């Protein structure tokens, strides 16, 4: 099986000798075999294990088993524990969907932090068959019909060449020990029901079912590649992003052929279902502000575009800024605070929204950076009267899901700058200004 493994990796161009791979290891037969193959192939790898806390002490024993496996192979070990059931209940999704979202987000975090090139999962041909059948049962697009891709971004499946029987023969031949997940026998999980009941019936019709499905998958994948090329061109034309959100020009979508299909493909990375895509499309001609949710993202139908933001942004607490602070980070952005400088003759006050040009003598350190809240007000530049921040954001046509990410810079309790929008008129540069302080948001 080692030769087939190496041949598959080379044929699919999955891994280069110099690359590092993070293996997702549950302790089950498939992932343990993947570890053994990586070790015998002398590839550079580490092991990551998720304890989903769903099977009590059995889950903890799985964790200890995988940790010992990392010691055996002398590779780094990463582990985390999730409150999976609680997350599933809060997000109103299945336990399996919750586990999938949690583990892949964590794997990607570890991959980036520790400079791994890929994340490898131990899916095999039987998993492809089960996935295709499950997707057909639930309803699916093209991607659901190819089941599981050999490579998807930073995720690779280097054991996808093998059937379950091949893997079992390998563990017997090499006397490999693994952990058996007791939940695999329970038909309360949909995939197990297909594996234990549906596939055996279908194999009575076609004993060579796995190979037949694999050939079909290859043909569908070719069709998907053509479709994806068109979708990639469309993404470049009608979507864009910044540090806070992804934007989709929905007016352009209305002019397309098969608009719902294409909208669903555009929204798929943010876990919106096809039914949700249909509902979003129907909301195009309705008033702005309609909100749609997935476990990971919020979509708001704004005036001319869809605005998509991460649902679980890190909580932000106010930051105190001392006079000697030069850079202040908050979320994915930062403030660059310039030194107090004498104003020069002919100086022109910059008007860019990302810059706040302030009269240095009017601000008092320490400054505070915080999110706005109801009741906050300021005197917008050019006005000599108060305006509620909430009303100002409405005037600025800030999408609903971006309003909560608006920050205020304050001095002695007074708003100096609605960051990225407008300064307060009381702190502006005038003819009497001697020194200025220039603050930039990036």
From TrEMBL:
EC numbers for this chain: 6.3.4.19
UniProt key word tRNA processing: yes
Residues the entry annotates as binding ATP: 26-31
Annotated organism of origin: Arcicella gelida
Keyword Nucleotide-binding included in the entry's annotation: yes
InterPro entries in UniProt: Lysidine-tRNA-synth_C, Rossmann-like_a/b/a_fold, TilS/TtcA_N, tRNA_Ile_lys_synt, tRNA_Ile_lys_synt_N
Subcellular localization: Cytoplasm
Task of the protein: Ligates lysine onto the cytidine present at position 34 of the AUA codon-specific tRNA(Ile) that contains the anticodon CAU, in an ATP-dependent manner. Cytidine is converted to lysidine, thus changing the amino acid specificity of the tRNA from methionine to isoleucine.
Single GO molecular function: tRNA(Ile)-lysidine synthase activity
Domain of life (superkingdom): Bacteria
Protein name, UniProt field: tRNA(Ile)-lysidine synthase
Catalytic activity: cytidine(34) in tRNA(Ile2) + L-lysine + ATP = lysidine(34) in tRNA(Ile2) + AMP + diphosphate + H(+)
Entry keyword set: ATP-binding, Cytoplasm, Ligase, Nucleotide-binding, tRNA processing
Free-text comment about domains: The N-terminal region contains the highly conserved SGGXDS motif, predicted to be a P-loop motif involved in ATP binding.
Family: Belongs to the tRNA(Ile)-lysidine synthase family.
First-level EC class: ligase
């Amino acid at each position: 099986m080692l030769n087939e493994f190496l041949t598959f990796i080379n044929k699919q161009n999955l891994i280069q000798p110099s690359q590092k791979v993070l293996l997702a290891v549950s302790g089950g037969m498939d992932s343990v075999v993947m570890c053994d193959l990586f070790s015998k192939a002398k590839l550079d790898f580490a092991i990551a294990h998720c304890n989903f806390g769903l099977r009590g002490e059995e889950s903890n024993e799985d964790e200890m088993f995988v940790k010992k496996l990392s010691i055996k192979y002398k590779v780094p070990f990463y582990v985390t524990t999730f409150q999976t059931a609680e997350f599933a209940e809060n997000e109103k999704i299945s336990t399996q969907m919750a586990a999938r979202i949690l583990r892949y987000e964590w794997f990607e975090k570890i991959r980036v932090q520790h400079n791994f090139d890929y994340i490898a999962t131990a899916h095999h041909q039987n998993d492809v068959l089960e996935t295709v059948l499950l997707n057909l049962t639930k309803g699916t697009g093209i991607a659901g019909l190819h089941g599981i891709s050999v490579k998807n971004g930073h995720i690779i499946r280097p054991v996808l060449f093998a059937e379950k029987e091949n893997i079992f023969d390998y563990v017997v031949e090499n006397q490999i020990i693994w952990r058996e997940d007791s939940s695999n026998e329970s038909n309360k999980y949909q995939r197990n029901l297909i594996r234990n009941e549906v596939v055996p019936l279908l194999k009575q019709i076609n004993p060579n079912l796995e190979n037949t499905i694999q050939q079909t998958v290859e043909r569908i994948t070719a069709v998907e590649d053509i479709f994806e090329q068109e979708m990639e061109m469309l993404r470049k034309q009608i979507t864009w992003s910044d540090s806070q959100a992804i934007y989709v020009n929905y007016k352009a979508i209305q002019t397309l052929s098969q608009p719902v299909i294409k909208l669903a493909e555009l929204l798929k990375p943010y876990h919106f279902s096809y039914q949700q895509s249909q509902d979003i499309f129907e909301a195009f001609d309705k008033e702005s502000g309609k909100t749609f949710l997935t476990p990971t993202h919020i979509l708001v139908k704004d005036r001319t575009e869809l605005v998509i933001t991460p649902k679980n942004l890190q909580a932000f607490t106010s930051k105190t800024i001392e006079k000697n602070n030069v850079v202040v980070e908050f979320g994915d952005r930062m403030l660059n605070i310039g030194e107090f400088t004498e104003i020069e003759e002919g100086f022109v006050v910059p008007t860019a929204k990302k810059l706040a040009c302030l009269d240095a003598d009017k601000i008092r350190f320490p400054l505070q950076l915080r999110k706005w809240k109801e009741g906050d007000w300021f005197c917008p530049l050019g006005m000599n009267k108060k305006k509620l921040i909430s009303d100002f954001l409405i005037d600025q046509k800030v999408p609903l899901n971006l309003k909560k990410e608006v920050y205020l810079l304050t001095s002695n309790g007074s708003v100096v700058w609605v960051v990225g929008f407008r300064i307060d008129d009381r702190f502006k540069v005038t003819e009497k200004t001697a020194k200025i302080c220039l603050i930039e948001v990036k």
